Amino acid sequence: MIWHSQDVRNYAIWAAFSPLALWLFWCALTSNRWRDWALYGVAQVAASYTFLLEPFFLLVQLSFALLFFRRRAVLGRMARTWLAMSLALLPLLVQLTRLAGSGYSGTAARVSVETLLRRFLPTLLFGEGGLSLLAGAALMMALLLGLLAGGRRRAPQRVLLLLWLFLPLALLMLFGTQMNIFRPRYVIAVTPALLLSILWVANRARGPWLGQGCRWCCWRWGCSRCMRTFMKTHPRPRIGAAWRHFWMSVPARTAR
To answer: For 207-229, how does the pLDDT look when each residue is reduced to its tens digit (9 = 90+)?
Structure first.
């Protein structure tokens, strides 16, 4: 996210606004107060204007609300909030309509299951890197089964993590069959769900030895990957140096 921020990209801002909107959505569902719905609406509009794939996460919210909060009072206030959000997002809807009819097909890559398993998880966790196909599939399956296990214990939280983590990935794969948009940065807002899912699975491992072993492996693997990413040299030019040269040249150019 630091690299994209230096490159004047909006991914880091979106990665902050989108989880904030989801958390405020949870608060609004549980309290059903107009103040919480208003705060959620402001955060959600900001997230939607920040990145055009934020509607993926609106589907996460809608699915979760229909599964666990089907009371008429809650759904009524949610509908009115979404109506107000729709009015605020009319310029964005016009832009998306024009984009859909422009023939634009993206500039990234087509959908690939191998890329999903090998590149997405380490990139979302550490910024870059890769896994073997078997390790990526095993990690994805462990997260899925770990969140599904547990019966009714904290079922809403586990289902929210499942939807938050897997539904945007599934939608990106679906749209990736038609457009070249299959890149981890396009779903960077699922990173909090990925981290929380790993912590949940590690903490829920049964038995003292198994639980401690899972937590130790996650800690060791995470630290080693972070250090490896930090120490790795990038062959591409550093944008920070270009900015410094630019600001050093400003006084000379403006003095003339």
So the answer is: 454 445 555 455 555 555 544 54
